[in-house]
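Model it.
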Amino acid sequence: MIPGKCRSRLGSGGKPAADSETIGPPVSGKVVRTIGISFESHFEGGNGELLAIDGDEVCFRVDKRKSPVCLWWYVKLDGVAGRRVRLVLQEVSARAGGAMEYADGKVRPVASVDGGPWRRLRPGFVDAEADKVTFEVPFASTARRARVAFCYPYVYSDLWRACRQWRKLPGVSVGSLVTSQGGRDVPLLLIGDPDSAPRDMVAIVARQHAGETPGSFVLEGILEALTGSGPVGKWARSKALIAVVPAVDVDNVAEGGYGKDERPVDYNRDWLKPRRPQTKALRRLLADLASRHRYRVFLDLHAPWTADPNMLVWTPPELVDEATGRAQDRLARLIFAHQTAAFDVAWSDCLATPESWGNWQLMSGIRQAIDHGVASVCVETTYHRTHAGRWASPHLYRGHGRAIARAVVDFCREDS
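Modeled.
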């Protein structure tokens, strides 16, 4: 068959023809086995609906769940030994942000073979007319199974594995903010004693949009610096209270949902009159801590659109008082100044949130800036490539996080 083409060889009633390996109607959250390759998306963090398997060609689409568009996908393939698998993502414009976002090698998903390290795939072939992208993935004869994802996965068990390590560090406590609607604990980290004399307070949240996995790796870098033995860590232990919610939308983190613009309400659009248990509890916590400490910084860790580079976003100065506006601008410029050559931010991509955004008043950072006069910056970290052309990796994400931590400490020192 022609590479990049998926044939739907279905019999009557939508059932597979008797002589066909092709799978019929989309199957979400199930293992589908054929004579050769098998496909699975029903695992922690998994997302994908199988459309067809024909020889070495696997056609699938994202499972939007309750979001209008879903960038996140994550699937398992078994029986790949010695095969040159053609992995075809279909209905890209209708479901996954647009086929042309994948053009010109701007997007390179990641794959792990037999539990080994994650590596970037080669750029895919975009067929805009057919609304699909094809990735050719050659596997060694010794390979058995592979995981392939839009970006580096960071699932709910990874989150709690990290929390167990953070709990061992001096001055760090780990608990549960609240129980999610799905019955999962939402982790809460505190660095410093909330009942101590007033300290400089920094709040950090990540994964309000569950599929935006770069935020978790950036957070690891931030916490590495804040809990380390260097100047940043010494400042945090002696001068600061750091409140961290490493993942807000834990249910979609566990179940593989993207989460952005999800019905009935996006977590990052639920900060004016909260409906979600996480947002209610987080707003109460921050208000309580702010009443007892000097609330200085709110960081919201995200990832941008499909192929966009790193950027910073903050509240338009006309929406806050003059002092808060100056503080936000100074914090953003310090983050920009602390960037590294390996993981860059272009000031041209740093912007105050457009007031034309119809739901701006519902967003977490803007609400914290308006309600508490805090310097609030949203850090959008690329899934794929930086301005300098470097491909993002967990190592670079963590370095980005360490640089952000240094900027936050410099900001608090300058303003104290």
